[in-house]
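User: For a reading group we're discussing how well predicted structures match intuition. Take Metal-dependent phosphohydrolase. Before you show the prediction, I'll give you the sequence so everyone sees exactly what went in.
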Amino acid sequence: MEAVPSRARAYVVCVALGALACLLPVLAPVTVPPLVPVPVTHASWWAVCLLAAVYTGCKQLARRSFAGPFYPVLLAAAFLLPPSVAALVPLPGALLAAAGRRPEALRRIWRAAQLALAVWVAAGVHGELGGPAAVADPDLPYALVPAGAAVVAFCGVLTALDGGVRVLAAASPARPGRRGLFARSLAPTAVHGLAGLMMAVLWRSPYGPVAALLVLLPMCVSWWAYAQYHRERAAHQATIRALVQAVDIKDGYTRGHSERVGQASMMIARELGMDDERVEVLRFAGILHDVGKLGVPTRLLRKDGPLTPEERRVIELHPEYGHEMVRGISFLGEARSAILHHHERLDGSGYPYGLRGGQIPECARVVAVADAFDAMTSTRSYRRARPVGTAVRELERCAGTQFDPRMVTALVRALDRHGWHPAVTAEDGTPPPPPGNGAPRVPAKHRAPRAPAGSAGGREEAHG
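Assistant: Thanks. Here is the predicted 3D structure of Metal-dependent phosphohydrolase, as structure tokens, for the group to look at:
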């Protein structure tokens, strides 16, 4: 069973008690006198049962066929019903859905309480702004105002509660990536809210609930397409992970290097203002830049002693090997040219083709800087990592001859903004032991550099 910290458990219990308090006006007839009486008619109970059944069915379908949350039914309930009644709708679906991880009961209770609170708040905001009357008329232009406010409240409650439990479960402050969760969640939730408003308007119209449920058909189609996109993306990630793991197994002395080069490439791309799709491609390029080492004989990568000129030429073929390996993977896009040209240098002294300046693809110039930076700041078997400041000064010194100054400047700005927190190269965080004769083994990729002495990264950048 996965351990859940006691503070996180206490937080879940508090949220569950809060959700129960929201339901008290409905449960009051069989418990205690209600503080705020809620009129619950036969029609309301019928609507609760139907919407709850539809939401439960959507949750079960999501587990088998689709992906991601599906909120139109919950938001339709917030637009149609009083707050305490609407909060009942998500309970069966949340409590019956598979939790995925243990402890299952705690996770189900958490999800049910979180959704009940979010629907309760959304219905309350919608009612305070006169939304039910606008839906019943219907006054569609005006109905968008309370519906929009309800969607913002719904999304805000979900992200706030989710952020709280994540922080308590991880025992750490909120990460920067989580701070933007509300902004990223608001757009898809707004689309679901619009579908929920259409359901509510049709529900109150002469066409009735059957017409309202038809709104879900195009939503389900779009949901399915969205799920297919994520499945395809997951397959891409699995392909890349398999290639990187194969490289790491073959040359364990640089384990983790590929992921860090991908991270640094992404930082540079974002600083340059590239769009999200291209940033992702640059991340792929950084992760796969050394995949061509799979085509290099293992004895050369692990050879003790200096390389012969012939052996060095074989190792220098790894960018071309890598390009051939990934040439048929269409989703990599321009990452393929980055893999081929990441060892080219602005002054034409690089390989495999000795390209100069603007002849080198932009993506390759990004990866070249990221590769050199990580090589200098990573601990290797024969030397400790250089400080980030030292590596940056070396990159700046070689900018204009070896590296594109624009890429170097972008990396420096990104480091100033976000810092650099790389993972250790070796699996256990310690340098690998020396070979039998006691002399530290220097991987072949780091010996006999082609670059002139003093170039950024030194021997680290010879073939890496």
